[in-house]
Amino acid sequence: MGIPANGSEDSVSGPNGEEGRGIAELVTDPSLQVEISDAVSERDKVKFTVQTKSSLPHFTRPALSVVRQHEDFVWLHDTFSENDEYAGIIIPPAPPRPDFETSREKLQRLGEGNSTLTREEFAKMKQELEGEYLAIFKKTVAMHEVFLQHLAAHPVLRRDHNFYVFLEYDQDLSVRGKNRKELLGGFFRNMVKSADEVLITGVLGLKEVDEFFEHERTFLLEYNTRVRDTCLKADRVMRAHKSLAEDYIPISVALSSLGTQEVCQLQTPPELLGRVASDEDLKLSDLFKYYMRDSQAAKDLLYRRLQALADYENANKALDRARLRNKEVKPAEAHQQLCCQRFEQLSASAKQELTDFKSRRISAFRKNLIELAELEVKHAKASSLLLQNTLIVLKGDA
Amino acid sequence: MAAEREPPPLGEARQPELEELEDGEDLFTSTVSTLESSPSSPEPASLPTEDISINSNGPKPAEIILDDDREDLFAATEEVSLDSPEREPILSPDPTPAITPVTPTTLVTPRMESKSITAPVIFDRSREEIEEEANGDVFDIEINVSDPEKVGDGMNAYMAYRVTTKTSLSMFHKNEFSVKRRFSDFLGLHSKLATKYLHVGYIVPPAPEKSIVGMTKVKVGKEDSSSTEFVEKRRAALERYLQRTVKHPTLLQDPDLRQFLESSELPRAVNTQALSGAGILRMVNKAADAVNKMTIKMNESDAWFEEKQQQFENLDQQLRKLHSNVEALVCHRKELSANTAAFAKSAAMLGNSEDHTALSRALSQLAEVEEKIDQLHQEQAFADFYVFSELLGDYIRLIAAVKGVLDHRMKCWQKWQDAQVTLQKKREAEAKLQLANKPDKLQQAKDEIKEWETKVQQGERDFEQISKTIRKEVGRFEKERVKDFKTVIIKYLESLVQTQQQLIKYWEAFLPEAKAIA
């Protein structure tokens, strides 16, 4: 599959790609549309059906459909992040591993015949847990989809060969999970990276000449930490909400069985609470999680740039030394030129990417915060109405 | 169902009544010995004579406890007892006549006027009608427990609570009065009432529990939130206890209760201390009782009682479970509140580090909203606790009282059976003596037989009496329970509604901020 440098492509995707790349605010570009139409959960694997509609010439068919697993997504992400060509781009963060563990455990515990629950309670808990399972499922699908859509929307990344393979190759990709060596290697690389960061920026006294980048670096470092923390706290709130909702189940069942028949209507608060919890989760928690990862990706970009800067500096020093000794000046010059070019390319691209990142972030937050507020109001109004109706019934019976 | 209804044995004394009845709407307090075949006739506990004369003192309690199953409010045209105002502290074989308030209704009065001699008939009809109106509880007495005040210092310190009574009942000297009482006074009151009424089948509301830990903290002077919470909890519990006690028609008439509410000085109840001699005696008795209970095998001839016994067992279990669930709820809500607070702080920090001004402001606003929500959660937690959980605790203790009453009935039955056995033995002994021809001992034996015959009769009567009382009490209890739970649930739901309304306000205020992010 060749990658024609089609000018029209770029112009079409250009404006669309830059603006509004919020979490779910991707402008659908008709030339390449990717979505996950279906997902099946088997034992411990989730199989996603990825459908592509494209008018781009390098696809053999205008409509494609393949089945992919989570590991395939991770592989795709890794090929991007390890690809030097894309060093100046913020690589969209890989989707998180589908985690049904807690939910499955809970369901299992419930099924193991806990005798302290009455039949009604059991049914309700089951319903609640199933709802939770479904929500997690939906969320994981969304995350995977968003990853692909971001790739499709990026003018450079969408043209990647591996991306096409991912979308089109109708056999199993057989991406073997990283074996232990590779995992360890990756782990060490991360450690080295963070150590390097400190070294490069601190000890080696690399002067950041560009104010823009200086500002971005400070900002990103702090932001990343903070958003990580907020994400954690948001998760805790969500969990507390859930356990509260679960608490209401036995209570409402017990009350209704106490013989006062009006009390059956007390059932509704728990369901509402549960729904509020999962909606809040979708909005807030997801938002923070995504930006935690995205800001990490931005940090990575900065890091790569710094590395390039270091390389450039080193090349400069090497060139100076070579000139002094008047030996191998040409290759040193060439190398230095290369490094300089690379660094400048990177910087330019990085600047663009970081500006995008900011606007992306702002619009995503805006959208999600608005939706959150609207949802909260909606829910509160609904619960309020329900409660008031119940009250009327109760009082009327008096 | 023997000996259910009997015409009031005191037919004669009724004449003077009617005149007063004709006074119109006013219900007078009448006291009638409940239709027990009481040998000693007109000894109904009475209201002070003054009451009788003052007819127009608003709705006065007057009720005859009639039949078994029915909660009776009977505006009876029974004689007013002109006897001594003080009721005997210890209940004689005559169960205390129950004097309960009657809903003042005009419907009732005419009926009273028309019938005079055919009492049972009146009872029937009016009872039904009155039952319908029974929900309009016009006991007209309101109790408040407030102003907990620490008196004294160190380990001898105690909390004094102000007990305020507002009433229009004439049995009290004033319409509004208040006294200072301490916790042991309440316990003393309960102990007196329990001694008098429990063993004849009245469900005496249990007093709040002692708490050595809680009180020690208060005594020592720890001014932290847990001790204020403890005092508040106790104050509310004492209030509920008194309110429940005065709602009970019979107990309301008790002079001890009156003294508790009215008199400024109250003899210190020392017997309530856990480690006192009386306390230890109580514990021993409790243990003995428990053993006895296991050995009494009662032939329950009355299906009603069997059913009720089972019902109360079930109810007890349900309530206990519900109680623990609500406590878990309170705990989780507090957790949610803590988590929300942490989240709010974190969001504020995030807002600070965000360099886009509008977004930064929005995030700070979000943090504020979440903080307010945290407050809301905390308040809701209090509501959960005070409204719900405490009620459940009260009812669990009440059910223990009900079970106690049922146990007393069993003991009563046992006593009766024992008396019968003894009588039988005496008869056999007499027969033997007859054969042995010992005239002097014979006479003694005959006397003993007479004595035991009376005892057997008395035992039977007692048993029937207690059964009757219990039926009525249980009926009343059930009604009260439904009413109580309903009130509490309504209050609880209202608090939930409040919370939701507040949430709406907060989020609606936040929305424009979010929209302003440019």
Automatic annotation (TrEMBL), chain A:
Pfam families assigned to the protein according to its UniProt record, in alphabetical order: PX, Vps5
Domain of life according to the entry: Eukaryota
GO biological process: protein transport; retrograde transport, endosome to Golgi
InterPro entries reported in the protein's UniProt record: AH/BAR_dom_sf (IPR027267), PX_dom (IPR001683), PX_dom_sf (IPR036871), SNX5/SNX6/SNX32 (IPR014637), Vps5_C (IPR015404)
GO cellular component, one term: endosome
Domain PX: 26-173
This protein's UniProt keywords: Protein transport, Transport
Cell membrane keyword on record: no
Cross-referenced SUPFAM superfamilies: PX domain
Region of interest (Disordered), ranges: 1-22
Molecular-function GO term, any one: phosphatidylinositol binding
Flavoprotein keyword on record: no
The protein's role, per its UniProt record: Involved in several stages of intracellular trafficking.
Similarity section: Belongs to the sorting nexin family.
Name of the protein described by the UniProt record: Sorting nexin
Organism: Chelonoidis abingdonii
